[in-house]
Design brief:
By secondary structure, this protein is of the alpha/beta class. Helix content is about 35%, strand content about 25%. The protein folds into three domains: about 180 residues, Rossmann fold; about 190 residues, HUPs (Rossmann fold, 3-Layer(aba) Sandwich), CATH 3.40.50.620; about 90 residues, 2-Layer Sandwich (GMP Synthetase, Chain A, domain 3), CATH 3.30.300.10. Strands 2-1-3-4-11-10-9-6-7 form a nine-stranded mixed sheet, with helices on both faces. The protein has a five-stranded parallel sheet with strand order 14-13-12-15-16, sandwiched between helices. Strands 17, 18, 19 and 20 form a four-stranded mixed sheet that branches. α7 links the parallel β13 and β14. α6 crosses α12 and α9 crosses α11. The protein starts with a strand and ends in a 13-residue tail after the last strand. Bound molecules: xanthosine-5'-monophosphate. The site of xanthosine-5'-monophosphate has 16 residues, from loops. The site of xanthosine-5'-monophosphate (XMP) has 16 residues, from loops.
């Protein structure tokens, strides 16, 4: 498959650019420029290189610009190219506001394109003098040289960011660079991704056995689907039901995976977990206990099965990519599942999703026919409801929270608000109010919108819907007669309450 290399010169621009390139159906990988040398770049055999950089960019090795494939520098990457080619970069004022770019009609990068409009530029530097042999190809009212090219050397640069959501016409320009200039083929399609992952797993696993810890979350479910297609019943999925799941969740996961061609084992370990969590009020302690017990249960089951050759994991690209920031900083998926490899005796790790972004994982799942509710599922912490009950966990509290959470989530889903809400759930607080001689809990509702879970905004749920939800909760869930809605962003708060 043809590959494009994104060299990240600093500023976390690599990840978003990579997603845009893949949306053009071209495969790419991101490397930190400071971590790779020319030998590694050549060994990667890219058909084109993108230099990604923000206001803080680092120099680029001029050799990169001589390696015989087209190079496009963006933002700081464009400035690094100008400098490496002997041009001059100068400080400027920060430039804000919508801007129409005047494009040179006969510039290869922009041929046949309507004008590009950008929302803002965040460069603190600008191009003072172009290198020899380079020509300006775009300008705006406030920026004389907003893009340049040396077509005979296949070098291009734009100060504006085509990958940014506010740049109209940006994807078209990026697509032109990838397909017309680099000649990249559009082979990064869902069908190809699935075929490649299945073929690769089949070849590596051969006739041996593979074990997967299934959480019911998107990543491990998609791994389950892929490996079942690849090696059928050589795969065993172990699903540890720790009793801290949402309403109906365990049965749903079981229903789906019992139908496909794998060995599916559901371990009903609720009692074990409940026993160990009894009387524990501190959330970090709860996390530790759930993690430890999970590994223990899993180990016991794995031992029963005998020698395992492969352990499968739902590692995704942001977990391993070099470009800092973004999702990579937030382990949203089940953290204890990531501890498993340390505790199990197996020969190799198999990670079929390691090159995919989260949205690609969802698309793969959908293309393979996994049900929508599984593929679209919001992140759910490994310790589950244990950290959504403030204070001590009791069977009654678990039941109360499960019913309340179900009412809240199903009302949001009925109103189609879940599509714009990344995570939404109920929290059972430890505030107890006495009412009519009976003790009742205060229930908190939390709903946030976020792209990357490292920051989040509380979701603007219409008052009418909140009213209906609160009404239902107080009427239908025994033990609750007060409901509050959490209106704290992250930061300063976290998404979970603990
Ligand atoms: P916070 O609360 O840190 O959450 O803003 C960010 C994301 O991480 C999830 N989260 C967890 N996931 N084990 C997990 O597997 C945990 O202990 C845990 N705590 C938080 C949270 O649901 C959100 O998606």
């Amino acid at each position: 498959m043809q590959k494009v290399l994104i060299l990240d010169l600093g500023g976390q621009y690599g990840q978003i650019l990579a997603r845009r390139v893949r949306e053009e159906h071209v495969f790419c990988e991101v490397r930190l420029a400071s971590n790779v040398d020319m030998e590694q770049i050549r060994a990667f055999q890219p058909v084109g290189i993108l230099l990604a950089g923000g206001p803080q960019w680092q120099r680029v090795d001029p050799e990169v610009l001589r390696c015989g494939v087209p190079v496009l520098g963006i933002g700081g990457g464009c400035l690094a190219m100008v400098e490496a080619l002997g041009g001059e970069v100068a400080q400027t004022q920060r430039i804000y506001g919508r801007m129409l770019m005047n494009l040179e009609e006969d510039a290869v990068l922009f041929a046949g394109m309507p004008p590009i409009t950008i929302g803002w530029m965040d460069q603190l530097e600008t191009i003072q003098r172009l290198p020899e042999g380079a020509a300006a190809t775009a300008s705006s009212q406030v920026c004389q040289i907003a893009a340049f090219s040396c077509p005979e050397r296949q070098l291009y640069g734009t100060l504006f960011h085509p990958e940014a959501g506010h740049t109209e016409g940006g994807s078209r320009m990026l697509g032109r660079f990838l397909k017309e200039i680099c000649g990249a083929s559009e082979d990064w399609t869902m069908e190809n991704i699935i075929d490649m992952a299945v073929a690769d797993a089949r070849q590596r696993i051969g006739g041996r056995k593979v074990l997967l810890a299934l959480s019911g979350g998107v990543d491990s479910s998609v791994v389950g689907g892929l490996l079942s297609r690849a090696v059928g019943d050589q795969l065993t999925c172990i699903f540890v039901d720790h009793g801290m799941l949402r309403k109906g969740e365990g049965d749903e996961v079981e229903a789906i995976f019992s139908r496909i061609d794998t060995n599916f084992i559901r371990v009903n370990a609720a009692e074990r977990f409940a026993k160990r969590l009894a009387g524990v009020t501190d959330s970090e302690e709860k996390r530790r206990i759930v993690g430890e017990e999970f590994v223990q249960v899993f180990q016991e089951e794995a031992k029963k099965l005998g020698g395992v050759d492969f352990l499968a994991q739902g590692t995704i690209y942001p977990d391993i990519m070099e470009s800092g920031g973004g999702y990579a900083d937030v382990l949203q998926s089940h953290r204890e599942m990531r501890d498993l490899p340390e505790h199990l005796d197996f020969k190799e790790l198999i990670e079929p999703l390691r090159l995919l972004f989260k949205d690609e994982v969802r698309k793969v799942g959908r293309t393979m026919g996994l049900p929508e509710f599984l593929v679209d599922r919001q992140p759910f912490p490994g310790p589950g409801l244990a950290i959504r009950i403030v204070g001590e966990i009791t069977p009654e509290k678990l039941e109360t929270l499960r019913s309340a959470d179900h009412i809240f989530t199903s009302e949001l889903e009925k109103a189609h608000l879940h599509q714009h809400t990344a995570q939404y759930f109920a929290v059972l607080t430890d505030t107890v109010l006495s009412h009519g001689g009976k003790e009742r809990y205060v229930l908190a509702l939390r709903a946030v919108s976020t792209d990357d879970f490292s920051t989040a905004k509380w979701a603007r749920i219409p008052y009418e819907l909140l009213d209906k939800i609160s009404d239902r909760l107080c009427r239908e869930v025994p033990g609750i007669d007060r409901v509050v809605y959490d209106i704290t962003n992250k930061p300063p708060a976290t998404i979970e309450w603990a």
